[in-house]
Amino acid sequence: MLVDLHVHTNRSSYCSGLSPQELIEKALRLGLDAVAVTEHSTHRGAQIAYEMAEGSGLVVFRGIEVYTDKGDMLVFGMSSRVGTDMDFEELYGMVRAEGGLIIAAHPTRGFWGHHRKYKGETPLEVLRRLDGMETHNGGCPPERNERAVELARELGIASVGGSDAHMHYSVGKCVTVLERFCRSEEELMEELRAGRCRGAYLEELEREPQPRVLPR
Ligand SMILES: [Zn+2]
Ligand SMILES: [Zn+2]
User: Fold this and answer.
1) Strands in the chain per DSSP E
2) pTM for this entry
3) For residue range 19-39, what is the model confidence (pLDDT) as tens digits?
4) Which of 74, 127, 194, 209 lies at a C-alpha separation of 20 to 30 Å from 152?
5) Which domains does the chain have, with CATH numbers?
6) Which residues line ion ligand 2, judged by CB < 5 Å?
């Protein structure tokens, strides 16, 4: 199953010029099975895309991306309200308390922490505690993604990929390959937790056709 695990739409990410409709059409055209809409600290846009995709054949997972002082985090399976710029430990505690999943977004890209202070890469001791890390982020240069792939291997952390698309042309640039077909966030979390996933460039997968998992 191919999932673009990191997308922003214009419904609640004001930095995005991608409408939910455009996202659904583009993802289906690319042959993706699913996308995860991960707006900054709100599920609103994801919920809109989720409802709009019903009956389209595309699965939409609802997540969020949260800015923290240890880097941006993708979170699934958490319904509590979160701040826009959070203390990592506070967010981590909330996610664990709710049985959610937390993944480092673009951990090797560098990020702006509290007070817009440049913080470099997400620290290794933080990565080790997470459920996975993006090794393929559509907004990162190839060498940063290569470094993330090496790090994930070294640390034994699940690798995922997502485009971080804010415009239609970026959708599907990077994807997560899942071994099993998932229809809900619960199933997705189970697969990611088990490490039955890997990040990839869609281009590479097209060059060497992958066995596709058929929907049930
Ligand atoms: Zn980010
Ligand atoms: Zn993002």
Assistant:
1) 2-7, 34-40, 59-68, 73-76, 85-86, 101-104, 111-112, 118-120, 132-137, 159-162, 174-178, 197-201
2) 0.93
3) 999 999 999 999 999 999 999
4) 209
5) 2-207 (3.20.20.140)
6) 65, 164
